[in-house]
Write a structure and sequence with these properties.
This protein has 235 residues and is of the alpha/beta class. It contains 9 helices and 6 strands; from the N terminus they run E-H-E-H-H-E-H-E-E-H-E-H-H-H-H.
């Protein structure tokens, strides 16, 4: 089970709650906690679509203090970063939540009210503040969109950890790249007669490899293609 719970503090609009449930379902999060929410009716269910089970199983509490007592780690969200002198609002970006993925406790992702967010007392109670980099002209995002951005980043980091052991997601190492360059070099030598054209083709491909992400699996497959092409060209 994921250690993350999505906590909505005093959400005013049932449609937003339903939309948040749908977003949670999209990214595989199942634990929804509501602090003094609006009444949930048809609009919430309609917005939730196939995530109505999250609404039915949502935990409803009466105050923010219940959140403080019920979780090991509180990550609050804010659209205001403040100045260097404002130590209260010193948030990190969503990708820095990756450190919380290894936590053994229950983590609350706390989202404030639609109109004015979290109170200063609530911000002080949080162990970490997170902000989504947005336009300074209009940094406040829709509640469900904010939840989506945060959950996407956590999901992305979690998926990267899970896939790290797969060959097709591992970047080609130096040996694999050198093999690929050697195979390409052999093919170029069999195609071009002039030394200038050979050097240009090899330099261009090396620069391309330097800019692109090439997995070990892709390097292996390309090297095989270049080798067979060289052999066929020399016949």
């Amino acid at each position: 089970m994921s250690p993350f719970s999505v906590v909505l503090v005093e959400p005013r609009y049932e449609g937003n709650i339903g939309s948040v449930a749908r977003v949670m379902k999209n990214f595989g999060f199942k634990k929804l906690v509501l602090v003094k929410p609006a009444d949930l009716g048809g609009e919430a269910k309609a917005k939730a679509m196939h995530a109505q089970d999250l609404l039915e199983n949502a935990r409803v509490v009466d105050s923010f203090r219940d959140i403080e007592r019920g979780f090991d780690f509180l990550a609050g969200t804010t659209s205001e970063t403040g100045t260097d002198k404002n130590h209260l609002r010193n948030p990190v970006f969503p990708e820095e939540l990756v450190n919380a993925l290894d936590s053994g406790g229950e983590i609350a992702l706390v989202f404030g009210r639609e109109d004015y967010g979290l109170l200063n007392e609530e911000l002080k109670a949080c162990d970490l503040l997170v902000t989504i980099p947005a336009s300074r002209e209009y940094p406040t995002m829709n509640l469900a969109v904010s939840v989506a951005v945060i959950l996407y980043e956590i999901s992305r980091q979690r998926t990267r950890k899970e896939y790290r052991g797969l060959k097709k997601f591992q970047k080609a190492d130096r040996i694999e790249k050198n093999v690929l360059l050697d195979r390409y070099s052999d093919l170029v030598d069999s195609v071009y007669d002039q030394d200038f054209n050979r050097r240009l083709a090899k330099k261009t491909f090396k620069q391309l490899m330097g800019r692109a992400f090439i997995s070990g699996r892709e390097a292996f497959n390309l090297a095989g293609v270049f080798r067979k092409a060289s052999e066929r060209k020399r016949r």
